Each structure stands twice: as C-alpha cells, then as structure tokens.
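Try it yourself: sequence plus 5'-deoxyadenosine, in.
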Amino acid sequence: MIKTSDKKEKDYSIYFQPPSLVDAKKRGKAEVEVRYESAIPPELRTFGEGKFYMIRTYGCQMNEHDTEVMKGLLEEMGYQSTEDKQQADVILLNTCAIRENAEDKVFGELGHLKHLKLEKPSLVLGVCGCMSQEESVVNRIMQKHAFVDMIFGTHNIHRLPELLRESFFSKEMVVEVWSKEGDIIENLPKKREGIKAWVNIMYGCDKFCTYCIVPYTRGKERSRMPQDVIAEVRELARQGFKEITLLGQNVNAYGKDLDGLDYRFGDLMDDLNKIDIPRLRFTTSHPRDFDDHLIEVLAKRGNLVEHIHLPVQSGSTEVLKRMSRKYNREQYLELVGKIKAAIPDVVLTTDIIVGFPGETDEQFEDTMSLVQAVEFDSAYTFIYSPREGTPAAGMEDNVPPEVKKARLHRLNEALNEISFKRNRELQGQVIELLVEGESKNNPEMLSGRSRTNKLVHFEGGQHLIGQFVQVKIVDTLTWYLKGELIEESAQVQAG
Ligand code: 5AD
Ligand code: SF4
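Structure, out:
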C-alpha cells in the first residue's frame, strides 16, 4: 500500500505521468513562491535524540549541497551523523538521474540495504534526489523494493522532518513527490564543513537540451533574490570560509525570471566581487546566456577566479542543433575568443557527450578539432545515455556501442595530451594555493588548489591547512602538479 502525504492537491501528480516535455514546457511563470520559514516544528526538535543518520550522495554538486541541507535539518532534530551503516537509524540515498549508470548504482545499493533492513526493521530507509522525480523509478521502487520506507522529491527536501515522523508512525511507504514547478524555501539549516562552501543562486533549468532529464527532475528555472544570496555569502565570509562556489544548472540565466528586476548574473558577480571572501567560483555555465557584461565583470578578478566551466557538449553544429543547445560551433568559439581576450590566463574546462543519436564520424571529428582549438585544461566526457521521457530518447540511437567507446577513448587521449601540455606551461611559475589538507596518497604531503582549480601537492606543515600559500611549480603531470612552498601566507586580495 502506498500512502501519499501530499497536502497540496494541485501538485500531486508526478509519479502518475512520465516526465513530459509538453507538460513541463507549459509550466507557469508567476507561480514561484519564495518562503522564508523555519523548517523544524518545535515538537520535532528532539525527535532524533540518541539516533544516527547516514546520507549517501550521488551525482553533482547540487546534490552534495542538498545533502548539506538534509544534514542540517536532521541535526536540528537531534540526529547525529554516522558513517557506519550498522549504527544508522536513518539511511537516505540522495540520487542522481543524469545517466543510466548513476541509476544502476542506486539500485545496486538498495539491494545491499535490503539485508540491513531485514536485520534491523526499525531502520528508516529513504530514497530522495533526482531519481525520485521519475515515474518509472518510483514505480520500480514501489514494486520491487517495497522495503524502502520513504521516497521524496527534490522539491520536498524541507519536508524531511514531517516525512520522517510520518514514516516512523506509519507501516506504509511514505511517498511525497511534488510538481516540477518548485518554490524557493529560504532559511533552511545547512551543515557545512571545511573551508569551502556551496551557495545556490538558482534552481531548475528551462533549457531543455534534448538529452537531459534535469529540467524535469529539478523543475523550472527560479532565481533566489539577490539580497538573499548576498547575505548568505557575507555570512559565510564572516564565518571564515575561504572559497564559495555558486551553484545553478545554468547560472548564466540568473535573474531572467525575477520580474521587475533588471539584475543578471554579471550584476550579482559584480556585487559579490566587493565582499571580503577570498575566492568565488560558479558552476555550471551555459554558453548561450554567457554575456559580455559577465566577461567584463570577471576580468576585474579580485575574488573572481580565472576558471570557467563551459560545457560545449559537441563541436558539431548539426549535433548541437539536435541537442537543442541553441548555439553553434562558431558561436561557442567566438565566446571562447572573447573570454580569452579579456582573461588571457583563463582555464577553461568542459563537458562533452559522444555518440549522440546520429553522430557521424565527421561530426565527431568536429568535436576533436574544437577540443584542439580551445585547449581545454580538462573535461568531463560521457557516452550518450538515453533518458526516458526526453526528446533524444525518441531519436534513433544508431551509433554502435563499440564506436561510442572508441570515440570516447580517442577524445580522452586528446584531452589528456592537452592537459599535460597546459600543465607544463606552469613549470617554474609561482602560484597561490588554498591548502585543503593532506594529500590522499601521501600523508607527508599537503595538497591545495590554485585559483584555476589545479591540484598541487607540496611538502608543508599541518598548520597550513585552510591557509593560502605561494608555491613554485617544480613538476607537472597530466592530473596534478608538484610544488615547493616559498611563502606561508599569501596576501589575498578580495574585491
Ligand atoms: N547522457 C550522457 N551525458 C549526459 N549529460 C547530461 N545528460 C546526459 C545524457 N543523457 C552530461 C552533459 C552535462 C553533464 C552534467 O552530464 O554533458 O553537461
Ligand atoms: Fe540539462 Fe544543462 Fe541543458 Fe539544463 S542546460 S537541460 S541542466 S544540459
């Protein structure tokens, strides 16, 4: 038996319909509500006392940040964090739907957790995140993984305390997945750790690239109010965070939906440039909305770092058209030219999909030549994965799997060569690092990141962790650099 705890009649529909392009595109403009609320009802503030939670996060930084919100909520309920499955009273899987293999991992994990649930029936097992917004996934869990206690969507995160209570007192599966529109809930608690923090500037996506599930799972594009973002960044600076990454599926569309406000991403970056936080990054950019004003603002530098992640997806104008990316090869290259002219030492990284339906050898060669022309420092590369309900899933997937694999391999080889070459250009240079911690493979060494996000290993004392240092690059490899400490405290200029 399924119990829905949805109190918003109008929103409750999603898992009876597959994600539909037509319906999603019909979504209204004026319905976004910004709610400033304190999420935890007083009677739930001790609900988790003496109990432990564990959240397993899949996918992108947006999901990582949602996990921080859920941790914040759980800890305000009195729950404590654990990494030990056996100790956990609540286990949540914060899932990703971007490609099939991401979903396979979650179903694999559910298989393992079934045994745990049999051993410990009081365990509350929840599935949330992007997969929960898909009809087929919800149905599959209800039918084949009935031991799951709760399923909630990306728009229902703030309801976690109530859903847990419901699940605790109910013998039935609690399912709450709201519409694809989505509101903005401010003031939710967030458990942040370390020296780097994420800040959402917007939610959702209206681009509807034909291969992508995100506009369905994350709802429509909706920007947070500038003053809310600025206040959050100021507060993080006050708390001593050293680096902030602004998050949005398409940060370049920031502000477009803020009726009556002529305030875009460039304006936001310009305002944040004046705040005393040492480093500001942002992800992810869409080339179509990347405007000249933003380039002008980024060229002011200060806390705005010289790294831009600019997903291209393909170097072929025909493929880009079928992907509905709304720019062509020449426009992308022109944008790159403008960025490099304004910020000559910029590091560009990208995302590329190979084997999109109908991609010919020639069209793939266009991607190869674009990669050479731009000289990306690194790239995330993927084999196209059909996503149910998206327009591309209806296109004939006529590229044989071995051809897709061979293309991916060739592309990665080329990208590695370029990375190696670009890194070699840093040999002998002195660069600023934010020291993140011990090196993963060698506790004698420390590792840090440059402004351009390059990973650098160097020898230094533990007291440097969390600090800025200057290092001289003494060796360069494809994936990382080696440095020598030359100065312990760099003068960091912000704004
Ligand atoms: N198949 C393969 N890769 C995809 N991406 C998004 N959807 C798909 C898909 N269906 C890639 C894009 C995007 C990145 C986050 O994931 O390159 O930029
Ligand atoms: Fe997906 Fe990004 Fe395209 Fe939006 S812009 S549909 S998130 S690939």
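One thing you can check immediately is this: The chain has 13 helices and 22 strands.
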